[in-house]
Write a structure and sequence with these properties.
three-stranded antiparallel sheet, 22 helices, 12 strands, about 50% helix
């Protein structure tokens, strides 16, 4: 069976269509339509494929023009960009799709695009020649040794460009800089940007696949940048340490690929070779451990652990987040970072119901998706455990309601880092939360457990509707009709649903005041 080309689909009526999806980040930032959809006006597959190629060339030109427009005017509003998309869409030739001389049209369009690329390259060369010709001659440097721009300089410009557009958070800036630094060290920081060709990128990804995770913790990085390419090459050839996981490779590649695209857009390169930097799904599945929900035995060990007992462990340093985070994760389904970043002001009374407001209203807070913005009623078990008293105490002890709800140390990766470290390196081991095979449990398992239990919970005789589950946990609806016309469900009903959740464990003895009064275990 022949595989369909990209962006090539068949409607339910049997008519072939061209459908191109804009990047989600672009749609979210500029609030533009997700797809360009064009009917190829035929049920004949061979005819449709030829017509698809014609439309594909035109759409590629549209995308390139849109990139240029955004770069020239980064502050372009959503209405303006949507107008650009709509105007270009109208220019796509539909009637010519019926022409019999379609192959000539394809060749003509490809030739025109090649000519445009050549024009851009010539313009860049002319600008470089002009800049060189206007410099004062120096006896120590000849024109042959003057470079247009080094890889390191290009990376600095790229990062500055992204920071000025305010598209990266502080955490993303640190991560991208780190990955791009490794990239520059492997390919050579002082090499001219034109050195980034197919062979260079292939060699980069080959070396990276052989490097261990946290390579600079095991091997001292040379101070001289000229020595670093050979340094990494030697490590790749000789190391016997565990190599980067597929997810680690993907993180590196996902930082380098947009940089290569930017170099093409800006005129430094004619091709970015980003297709060479892909990690296959099977490769990821082989190295990535699957996160499981907690089993009944896991939950029993957690909720009867030393945290919720009458005694504390020797040398234990109790902190309020250790008591509340597992409970909030288990009865709200909120993500680790969402709970860790809660401010005192995010604890609200909504319809006479004590709730948490998950938002990105403060510095350092971010949402995974727009659907993650939500309010969640707190379960009776959390209120009975003394949550209101805890919040009142925090209000009295803090100068402002903008303070974090939990006292967590600031970290370059965010305040949730302390929670993750405590849970994975300390609490999980003490509770013996083990799994078999290529699986694991972590704090995110609370979310999986809550979603599974919520979906199987009954209110009256009916299971909780899938839409309400998504509203509570902050999942996108994925339904245009509901997204546009759906309304927030009755908040009291959500509270009732959450209170109906039963994990089959007696939680009546869980108390924050008892947590504070625990005595050292003898």
């Amino acid at each position: 069976m022949c595989r369909n080309p990209l962006y090539f689909f068949k409607s339910k009526h049997g008519v072939y269509q061209f459908r191109y999806s804009f990047p989600l980040s672009l749609c979210n930032q500029y609030n533009i339509q997700r797809e360009i959809k064009i009917s190829l006006r035929t049920k004949d597959r061979s005819v449709a494929i030829r017509r698809h190629l014609i439309v594909l060339n035109q759409v590629h030109e549209i995308i390139e023009d849109i990139k240029t427009i955004i770069m020239k005017d980064p502050k372009l509003d959503s209405k303006g960009l949507q107008g650009v998309v709509d105007s270009y869409k109208k220019k796509i030739v539909i009637d010519d799709l019926r022409d019999t001389n379609e192959n000539l049209q394809i060749e003509s369009m490809q030739l025109m695009r090649a000519i445009e690329r050549q024009k851009k390259a010539l313009k860049h060369k002319d600008e470089t020649i002009h800049a060189l010709s206007t410099r004062d001659p120096s006896p120590s440097r000849s024109i042959d040794t003057i470079k247009t721009i080094t890889i390191a300089q290009a990376i600095v410009k790229y990062v500055k460009f992204q920071i000025e557009r305010n598209t990266w958070s502080d955490k993303i800036i640190r991560q991208r800089k780190g990955y791009l630094s490794v990239f520059a060290d492997i390919v050579g920081q002082k090499n001219d940007i034109s050195m980034l060709n197919q062979d260079t990128i292939t060699e980069y990804q080959r070396i990276l696949r052989q490097l261990p995770a946290n390579v600079n913790k095991y091997y001292e990085l040379p101070q001289a940048v000229e020595l670093r390419p050979e340094h990494y090459k030697k490590i790749a050839q000789t190391t016997n340490k565990n190599k980067l996981s597929a997810r680690g490779l993907e993180s590196h590649f996902n930082s380098v690929k947009p940089f290569l695209t930017w170099c093409v857009d800006i005129g430094y390169l004619t091709k970015d070779h980003r297709k060479l930097l892909n990690v296959g799904k099977r490769e990821i599945q082989k190295t990535q451990k699957k996160v499981l929900p907690f089993s009944s035995e896991h939950l029993s060990r957690i909720l009867t652990s030393y945290i919720y007992s009458e005694y504390r462990l020797p040398r234990e340093k109790p902190n309020a987040f250790q008591f509340w985070m597992p409970l909030l994760g288990l009865f709200t389904g909120a993500r680790e970072s969402e709970i860790a970043n809660l401010r005192i002001s995010d604890i609200k009374i909504i319809n006479d119901i004590l709730s948490i407001d998950i938002n990105d209203n403060h510095a350092g807070k971010s949402l995974k998706t727009e659907a993650s913005r939500r309010c969640v009623p707190l379960a009776k078990i959390i209120i009975d455990a003394g949550f209101e008293s805890f919040v009142e105490h925090r209000i009295k002890s803090c100068n402002t309601n903008d303070s974090l709800l939990f006292e967590l140390p600031n970290h370059r990766d965010g305040v949730a880092r302390a929670v993750s470290k405590w849970f994975n390196e300390n609490f999980k081991k003490k509770c013996n939360l083990t799994t078999e095979g290529n699986t694991k449990v972590c704090f995110h398992s609370f979310r999986h457990t809550f979603i599974n239990k919520l979906g199987s919970t009954k209110v009256g005789n009916d299971l909780v509707p899938d839409r309400i589950v998504k509203e509570i946990v902050g999942h996108e609806m994925g339904d245009v009709t509901n997204d546009v016309y759906g309304h927030e469900h009755d908040y009291v009903l959500k509270k009732e649903i959450i209170d109906c959740i039963d994990y089959g464990i007696d939680l009546s003895t869980i108390s924050y005041s008892r947590f504070l009064k625990r005595k050292p275990k003898k």
